[in-house]
Design brief:
GO biological process, one term: carbohydrate metabolic process
Pfam family, one: Alpha-amylase
Structural class: alpha/beta
Strand order of the largest sheet: 17-16-15-14-13-12-19-18
Low-confidence stretches: none
Largest sheet: 8 strands, parallel
InterPro entries: GH, GH13_cat_dom
Oligomer: single chain
Keywords: Glycosidase, Hydrolase
Protein name: Alpha amylase, catalytic region
Radius of gyration: 23 Å
Strand content: 25-35%
Length: 529
């Protein structure tokens, strides 16, 4: 059970419920980890988990709608809406479809045109002024690369522990092969770090010599510029490595100062491999998921926020955007201050749950809900996929949908080809390239690579695959996506004759195993693998 203390008007959400708690507030909106909210959280209407229990926040009245970014966006002359109601509604002159039932109410999509619109429902009729034009990212698709695993691999036998020797030169070669299906490179951490994945950062203000240092970084930037690709860099600000100069005297939550100092001494004299058997039990400081080598920063302290801002400010001139690691663990207002130097750049955060209380600060997130309820059900039948797509759209603000990162796989997940048939993989890529948002292809995905997260075979070194039918199919999808302007605008999924159909306003996309058919006022385009 959750306790709503009061409601507060809000320019982004319309109104939010203030939910009280004691200590850290943990729920699906924090991805199950603590750090972002303490003593209370402000939530728009919806169904959440708080402290392991269901929390239903019901609107104060119906229809529940405001002409604010959380519920309305304008793309050209089309106005896209989300409306909460307990019965069918009407938007005169517009398209209306129920997306999903959410607890005691339903979420409806509406699309209309004009300077104003009317919502009729529940014995009421209300007129709203159309919102200001929305903004979609300049990047329309990403190619995701883990630097250490770019290239053929050099002497690594244990994929979970060892460096495999990938460099930014290898990254540049992979990116050159992705220009036909992506216009941005999503680059995992490149900072000096303790592990091959580089999420245990030692120095945020440098480029690891193992990947080639600054010279290789500038060469990568030049190579990307020549082929018209932007660069999105992974920012790791929830935690650092204990070898970081910040630790342990910086802004951390220290439970035992003596224990933290002992850890610092050990990590400075022992190689990482030797530390695996040393640390066990509860760390003497707060960490990411109780990983001793990832002490988390305390963003209730001004020093942590200022440090994060300095990191963003340092890298912003070098990149076109950022991916925010563990974004759901840092308070929204800390993000607001830290991201100020990133204005005008594409930013999306990692979030494995429901990002609802973060959208007013970070526009886009990793679309894990779509992954779990749409992508993973591609083998179960198109009805399940359509239901999952619509529920994802119901829970995502129309202003945020174009900024969401859509994927079939990433470095944390099983390869799609490991649990889906080849035809279902094709169908999945057609789906994410036809929905609004920013689809990404994880290196090797363009060739149907297989691998599992549990044994890190999803992170095998990848030297590229030359010509491949799936790669050619992705290129055709990317061209159609750009030509038809599918990166933003309303979407609704349904089924027809056993096929998945996406309504995209003036465009209809019919997706089935092995092909996609795009129908628009300009004609029909059929893409086969």
């Amino acid at each position: 059970m959750c306790v709503v203390e009061k409601w507060r008007e809000d320019p982004f959400y319309g109104a939010v419920a203030v939910v009280k708690a004691e200590g850290y507030v943990v729920g699906d909106f924090t991805g199950g980890i603590h750090g972002a909210f303490r003593d209370y959280v402000e939530l728009p209407p919806g169904v959440y988990t708080v402290g392991g229990e269901e929390c239903a926040i019901e609107p104060l009245s119906y229809p529940w709608h405001f002409s604010v970014p959380y519920m309305a966006a304008r793309w050209g002359d089309v106005v896209e809406l989300r409306i909460y109601a307990t019965e069918e509604l009407e938007v005169p002159g517009g398209f209306v479809a129920k997306l999903a039932d959410v607890g005691p109410f339903s979420v409806y999509l509406a699309a209309t045109r004009g300077a104003s619109y009317v919502v009729k429902c529940c014995g009421r009729s209300r007129r709203f002024k159309a919102p200001h034009p929305g903004e979609a990212p300049r990047l329309s698709a990403l190619y995701e690369v883990l630097p250490d695993r770019a290239g053929p691999g050099r002497g690594c036998r244990d994929l979970s522990k060892q460096f495999c020797g990938g460099t930014l030169k290898d990254v540049a070669e992979l990116a050159a092969g992705a220009v036909d299906f992506a216009d941005g490179l999503y680059l995992h951490p490149i900072y000096p770090a303790m592990s091959y994945h580089r999420y245990d950062v030692v120095n945020h203000f440098d480029v690891d010599e193992r990947v080639g240092g600054w010279a290789a970084f500038y060469a990568l930037k030049e190579a990307l510029s020549k082929v018209g690709m932007g660069l999105v860099l992974d920012l790791v600000l929830y935690h650092v490595a204990p070898r970081s100069p910040l630790f342990p005297d910086g802004p951390f939550v220290i439970k035992s100062a003596e224990g933290a100092r002992l850890v610092k001494k050990l990590v400075e004299i022992l190689p990482r491999e030797a530390l695996r058997g040393v640390f066990s039990g509860e760390p003497p400081y707060e960490t990411f998921l109780k990983v001793w080598l990832m002490p988390r920063l305390d963003y209730t302290r001004r020093e942590a926020v200022e440090y994060a801002r300095r990191v963003v400010e340092f890298w912003a001139p070098h990149v076109d955007g950022f991916r925010l690691d563990v974004a759901h663990g840092i308070p929204p207002e800390a993000w607001r201050a830290a991201l100020e130097p990133a204005r005008g750049r594409y930013v999306f955060g990692e979030h494995v749950g429901n990002p609802a209380p973060f959208y007013h600060v970070i526009r886009g997130f990793t679309a894990y809900f779509l992954y779990h309820h749409g992508v993973k059900r591609l083998g179960e039948g198109v009805e399940e996929v359509a239901r999952g797509v619509n529920r994802y759209l119901a829970l995502t603000p129309p202003s945020a949908v174009p900024h969401m990162n859509l994927f079939l796989e990433n470095h944390d997940l099983d390869r799609a080809a490991s649990f889906l048939s080849p035809d279902a993989v094709v169908m999945g890529y057609a789906l994410i390239y036809s929905l609004p948002g920013v689809p990404s292809v994880y290196m090797g995905g363009e060739c149907g690579e297989v691998g599992r997260a549990e044994d890190h075979t999803n992170r095998r070194p990848f030297p590229g695959c030359g010509g491949h039918p799936l790669k050619s199919f992705l290129a055709k999808l990317f061209a159609a996506r750009k030509r038809l302007g599918l990166s933003a605008g309303p979407a609704y999924a349904y089924t027809r004759r056993g096929r998945l159909v996406l309504w995209r306003g003036d465009v209809e996309v019919e997706v089935e195993r092995g092909r996609a058919v795009f129908t628009s006022p300009g004609g029909s385009l059929e893409i086969f693998i």
